[in-house]
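Why does residue order matter? Because the sequence determines the fold. Keep that principle in mind as you read this record.
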Amino acid sequence: MRAVLMAGGSGTRLRPLTCDLPKPMVPILNRPIAEHIINLLKRHGITEVVATLHYLPDALRDYFQDGSDFGVQITYSVEEDQPLGTAGCVKNIAELLDETFLVISGDSITDFDLTAAIEFHKQKKSKATLILTRVPNPIEFGVVITDENDRICRFLEKPSTSEIFSDTVNTGAYILEPEVLEYLPANTESDFSKDLFPLLLAKGEPMYGYIAKGYWCDVGHLDAYREAQYHALERKVKLDFPYKEESPGVWIGQNTYIDPTAKIEPPVVIGDNCRIGARVHIEPGTVIGDKVTIGADANLKRPIVWNGAIIGEEAQLSACVISRGTRVDRRAHVLEAAVVGSLSTVGEEAQISPGVRVWPSKKIDSGAILNINLIWGNTAQRNLFGQRGVQGLANIDITPEFAVKLGAAYGSTLKPGSRVTVSRDQRNISRMVTRSLIAGLMSVGINIQNLDATAIPIARTVIPRMGVAGGIHVRVHPDRPDYILIEFMDAKGINISKAQEKKIEGAYFKEDMRRSLIHEIGDVAYPSQVADEYCTAFEKLLHIDTLRNSRAKVVIDYVYAVSGAVLPQMLDKFGADAVVLNASLNKTAMSATDRETLLTQLGHVVEALKANFGVQVSANGEQLILVDESGIPIRGEMLTALMVDMMLTSCPRGTVVVPVHASSAVEQIARRHDGKVIRTKANPTALMEASYKNANVVLGGSADTGFIFPQLHPGFDAMFCIAKLIEMLTIQERSLASVRAELPRVIHKSHVIRCPWTAKGALMRHLVETHPAQNLELIDGVKICQQYDDSWVLVLPDASEPLVHLYANSNDRDWVDETLRNYRARVQAFVEREQEQVVAEV
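Structure:
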């Protein structure tokens, strides 16, 4: 017996799921609806299938091929020009149907006993048997009424409430004799329910209704789609699960890793090759496709997640549908009945409200709240470069193919034959990205000086000495262990200018890359004695004898990074007593929690050894946190003030460069030493440029970025900072605790407020217009100063996120608290007004 699988439907009511997929290919339990139908046919001995196709026919054809992998033989019939309707497309293949055949819909889920229905058809000697079922609310279906002998005497397609005369409905499955097709005209659109069956009824042909027991769900709309999944998980319908049942109600595919701390409550389906992170909570009713990654602390309450999706850390999904290849970033919320189309991106902390539908390939900005369907338009990528180089999720945003193209774009802005240094941290992900960048650079005729795994201060030191055109450094982001940061440096070792960034972006987006001939392809060299060059430059700026005679004992925690490979030897050479912790290389990135644990341990070791101080080095040799002799950490504004005080004590009348938001303790210290303070924009490049260009700069940077010693190189350097600290504490005969005790007592607090990109410019203009010009500083953001003292408040838009940072600074704690409260309310009120205005305009 043959079956005709009706698989031509476009599934308009299932959009956006069916925007790029025909309805029969929409997955239930990670397998297409059509596959479940074929499994049903196979269970009842029907292995010859003719599939009628119309909408996106290749999707189904490519999946099933000839059907041999599924245990059946499939023939295809495609309605090329116009849809012929349910009956017309079967009439179109009448030559293949020379005996009793079954017609079944490819977009419903059922476990009906087809063998019993076929037996019924034969017993009744029926020309057409409709498989019927009882439903509580038949308004959406074709209602059928039969007499006491099960012969059909009346039916009505999709009745109104007043017309309902039965709860027995047409399921779209029929057993037919070939001769009934003779009643249909050829190549004409016709429908079984509207055209053929009324005609058979009028002609008095024997037509029966078989009321089937079992489950049936017409997956006609999005609510029904989710319900069918839940019913399948609860085993209300007999379907073949594609995975092994690892424990009662938990089906898990092959090669899937689930962190031991994840909590999974049955029933749940998790596909092949998935990665479930730490402390993930998966609640009953959740369906997770193949190759899905779920970040730590995510919470999944009955979502349906399709193949290849990426769910970020702390994301919240509630009874929604996340389509193929979609990315839901960290802390985003997708709420009940929302549907996100394939290949879309939901930004960090964005929220998609209940019932909202997002069409494929859309981008929801970070922090956005989406209350309406997103159908037209697309959010384009704003920039490649952020506040600090190119950054993105490792192996998701920053992939090998992306890095190859980025390397080629950068190389295309340089002269052919130029030389560039490439360096990285010790992580495997950084090695992968670096090699891809190198391939892109070589393809446009750039020669590579490969410094391999190297601390970034070493790379910055050797760049001007090697006479190269610039450099690239790749590392795991200092603040985000799941992010990669790619920094580009100029010939002086400073991060490249905005103008150079724009050139690279232009080449990247316009795909304006040159292609070198074979003999022009770049070369790769591995320079030796790179660390020695750094050591030589390092020594020249220190009083080596002071270090040798200091008898200082320092405990240094390298947090398993590459900076541990250089500094211990140097300090040993200088005769300093350095106790080294965690100096071996670890290829996995440390989380913030792990670093805090190591910092506490460092404090205990410093105390136990009665060391002068301890240091935790991070950010690949750029940043540090100090621990005083009592084991108490010194970080943030306290660390910035301490370094400024020590450097200006060593170099009175010197100049220090700090970011705009640093505490006014810096100015108070500078006044004590007749020094000068230069404030810059709150980004690393601005700090480097100001430290390099201004005369007599003895220190640049802050605890957030690290500290710059421009005489050595123009970047941040925690390693030199440690040696300089030993030297200064020895010469000044001070301890960290005594230096800290002498620092000015300044109250400095901050707060972060969410602010859409579209409102940032208007907010800044509003603040400028509503404050006297003489009280404003506009270095970066809007700083409102109190005249005659060091009190100020700064409103600073974030460069890469839809956020605004508020900083309040004063010697008066009450003033800081009141001002922060006041400006928080002002900014929030302004943002709310702007959003209301946008909604009103829409």
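Residues 813-841 form the longest helix (29 residues).
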